[in-house]
Amino acid sequence: MSKIRIYEYAKAHHTSSKEVISKLKQMNIEVSNHMSMIDGETVSKLDAFYSGKKQHSDGKKQNVQKAPAKRERNEKAEKAQPEGREHHEKSGKQRQKNGNHGNGNMKKQARENNVKPFNKQKKNKKNKNAKQQPQPAQKKKELPEKITFTESLTVAELAKKLNREPSEIIKKLFLLGVVATINQQLDKDAIELIASEYGVKVEEEVVIDQTDLETYFTEDREEDLEVRPPVVTIMGHVDHGKTTTLDSIRHTKVTAGEAGGITQHIGAYQVKIDGKKITFLDTPGHEAFTTMRARGAQVTDITVLVVAADDGVKPQTVEAINHAKAADVPIIVAVNKIDKPTANPERVMQELTEYGLIPEDWGGDTIYVPISALTGEGIDNLLEMILLVSEVEELKANPNRRALGSVIEARLDKGRGPVATLLVQNGTLHVGDPIVVGHTYGRVRAMVNDLGRRVKEAGPSTPVEITGLNDVPEAGDRFVVFEDEKTARQIGEARKQQAVQAHRNETARISLDTLFEQLKQGEMKELNVIVKADVQGSVEALTAALQKIDVEGVNIKVIHTGVGAITESDVALASASNAIIIGFNVRPDANAKRAAETEKVDIRLHRIIYKAIEEIESAMKGMLDPEYEEKIIGQVEVRQTFKVSRIGTIAGGYVTDGKITRDSGVRVIRDGVVIYEGEIDTLKRFKDDVKEVNQGYECGITIKNFNDIKEGDVLESFIMEEVERA
Ligand SMILES: Nc1nc2c(ncn2[C@@H]2O[C@H](COP(=O)(O)OP(=O)(O)OP(=O)(O)O)[C@@H](O)[C@H]2O)c(=O)[nH]1
């Protein structure tokens, strides 16, 4: 007896997979789900149960027994097929033939599962020989031993691979409960299922997608690696001195060192201290940092967090810390503006310890450097510290390979065409190299360094501005140098067609709806969460409560918290860290909303802490309640108002659109702004209470706990409808 999947068995016995699974549980046979295979012995056990159950309905046995015999005659040509196939065919055919013959059928089925197909075949052979069917010898081609596929196959393709007619495959699918057309794409499961029916092995070929630039970012052998300069990003709160710090470093170190050199703004620059280089990314702020990271480019090795000594830790300081932590990038704190009389570096340190940045003097491992970006004081020290940290980090690359890296910025220059600043992250980039950058390609025509000088090559951690691309790439895009121009062009063009944006949208982001699936498949061990709330107290309460959620196998990691509306920067962080955002009494602003839609970031808005906790917890356990979607059902224009003592304000209205019902929710809209949302108290037509009033009719409405209705207001009625989860 061959193996069979649970759902097939259930289907053959007109019962649910669930019931079969629970029956198996009772028999102490462990199975995971309806796709699990059960062996012959288990089938027999189940058969025994089901036949026992249906004993009383043997009446139709005789009738149904004929059907399969006839069928088998027709299919005699398939004599060489394995047992499993035969079994499924049988049960399928039988189902089809007997329709709802019910219990008798099942009983017969159960028996048939126990009889030896071998005998049957013999019998059939005899039949065949005896009768010599007149039909042309439709000898089916041999089944292959194994078929291979990549990603999916259409029914027609699968049929061809199996040397079978597409109609036969369609029939099999139909018997398995799938209605398919000849051009239908079959997924891996379906292909395996059909192939197993024929006893044919299946092998999925995983193709390396040549157009995926990430695949070229391979590791080097240890002996090929050499020390490379660190790449540093400066972050901090508005006006704390990020730009001044970058300028200060550039002017003291670049201009002075390179006589006559004028620093070019190419998005990044390098300085040299005691013969060692440091690369600074010129766009300060964590937004750029995280946007790049969201696009897959992690270029920063070290973050310098600038905090003004006279101002202390501010919201964006915290954001910057969390962005750096989420990217796992070490932080050096530059306590700026120490020249100011009001400067209080101690306070900065004190405040930052709350965020885990404990100074070395206090037993921690965070380096603090007091600086004045304005006067230049402490800048040397800061640079030394950067070199120190980079030594600890052991930053290395292989200069002797074809260059790989990321785009820092790009633009279209009127005279020179597309211009891109590239950061070489590994290998060495040469003039003339065939290159693919994002979804653009070309040959490196000219290279200019941060001092505006033409260079012929650029090694690891070097920023260079290049020309020679066919189009303008985007910041954060990856670049890869290829062996020859033809390959570069092919891959570049293929990538262009793939529409990078569309591809990005498709990448599976985590959402509460899909969380359980991913947990189940072992794809996730940690759920990253960003918490935004209206007041600090709620942030803390919610964070603490989230961290207490205990579901086996998953940790909740709160990667960022903050007070105030959900911003684009939150969404970027969520997108880069595959996190979900919980908003407590706050809303995303317009930009954040848009960004969340394109980046497919799941934002959950709540007004009650335990509801937020409950939602996450049930999502982790795969028990999310049904989702409701608001549906606006009508609009009422307020044409008059009446004040009635003890009742309040009654709105005399006219239904201009749809309808309003007694139990719908209602929103009061004045000049386009929602000023109140609540429930209807009474709904009347003349003096009578009514359940609903339709378009074109007048009505009288009072709203629960709201009396400020004015003439000209629009009342919007809505209901909450349950929607199926995607
Ligand atoms: N006294 C003093 N003023 C400083 C120092 N560093 C920066 N400033 C001043 O602080 C102000 C803000 O400096 P920026 O460098 O523009 O700050 P930023 O962080 O880049 O600001 P955004 O780009 O707006 O986020 C400017 O007026 C600077 O002159 C410093 O070390 N000492």
Task: List key phrases describing it.
single chain, 726 residues, alpha+beta, Arc Repressor Mutant, subunit A, Rossmann fold, 6 domains, six-stranded mixed sheet, six-stranded antiparallel β-barrel, 34% helix, binds guanosine-5'-triphosphate
Describe this entry's structure for a reader.
- By secondary structure, the protein is of the alpha+beta class.
- The chain folds into 6 domains: 4-49, no CATH class; 146-204, Arc Repressor Mutant, subunit A, CATH 1.10.10; 226-397, 3-Layer(aba) Sandwich (Rossmann fold), CATH 3.40.50.300; 404-505, Translation factors (Elongation Factor Tu (Ef-tu), domain 3, Beta Barrel), CATH 2.40.30; 523-622, Translation initiation factor IF- 2, domain 3 (Rossmann fold, 3-Layer(aba) Sandwich); 627-723, Translation factors (Elongation Factor Tu (Ef-tu), domain 3).
- Strand 9 and strand 10 (276-281) form a beta hairpin.
- Helix 1 crosses helix 2 (17-26), helix 4 crosses helix 5 and helix 12 (286-294) packs parallel to helix 20 (568-577).
- Mean pLDDT is 79; it is low at 56-137, 255-261 and 503-507.
- The chain binds guanosine-5'-triphosphate.
- The site of guanosine-5'-triphosphate has 16 residues, from helix 11.
- Guanosine-5'-triphosphate binds at residues 236, 238-244, 284, 336-337, 339-340, 372-374.
- One of its GO terms (cellular component) is cytosol.
- Residues 227-396 form the Tr-type G domain.
